[in-house]
Amino acid sequence: MKILVPSNVPFDLRLHVEGVDVAPYVMRDPVPEEHTDAEAIVTWASPQRVLDDAAERLTALRWVQTLNAGPDQALAAGFAPDVVIASGRSLHDATVAEHTLALVLASVRRLDRTTRAQQEHRWDRDLGREQARDEHAFTLAGAHVVLWGFGSIAATLAPLLTALGARVTGVASSDGERHGYPVVAAERLSQVLTTADVLISFLPATPATHHALDAATLALLPAHARFVNVGRGATVDEVALAAALRAGTLAGAALDVTETEPLPADSPLWDAPGLILTPHVAGGRPQGAAAFVTAQVRAWLADGAAGLTNVVAR
Questions:
Q1: Is 25 part of a structural domain of the chain?
Q2: What CATH number does the domain containing 46 carry?
Q3: Which of 100, 217, 228, 238 is 20 to 30 Å apart from 294, CA to CA?
């Protein structure tokens, strides 16, 4: 079995599986002609054009293993229907949960406002007065936090929010309980948004989730609520989000992802009040990638696609 593995990743991705030919490629370059007979490919930070090219030229390919938590790029590449796609879900749980918590706290504690005041060499005395007037607006203690998309990252984050005193509700495909937290079906999202103090989205980019956070959904949130997106930028109507922030019908937002990345210079998000932006860095590098891929390769050799974890429905 020949498997293509990116050679220019800034982390250990050495595989040690007997009988496997590990062929290197550079993530931003097309796969070398001599390796187009590969049966599997590991991807991480390749641009879409490289994946599209691989889908066209790697005719022997049977399995795509992405190290990204979201498999949307691989799904969009046009790989043949019989090619198995598996995601890197779990490799980013801790880092994305940490970054999400940082964004939530930064928004709730108004760190964007204090950063601006620092840059202007200004002591923001009004902030303390506002905190004194409202005992709930500057804390997660007693807050209702809704996690839209209750997968492994949300399951990692939820206990951290609970430890800070928040009440957590998940939103997923069906009603029930996951990891000890109540979860409501997506069709009942409107019922929990009306009492949400913070809405956090982990939604993937699919045709069904395109602009899922639109003007109508934003209107369901209380004016004091805050929105955080660490899923995919295509799930947010950015014009509607910027309008809600300008109108004061949404208190704040924090985005690690945007629909177009890098964010265009003329985007209304740059100057939207109460908005914190980070440049798609929540996940950072995958944790334990070498061990994960090695286990996946061994599972593939033993049982084929049936042995893999994180197989994506197509």
A1: yes
A2: 3.40.50
A3: 100
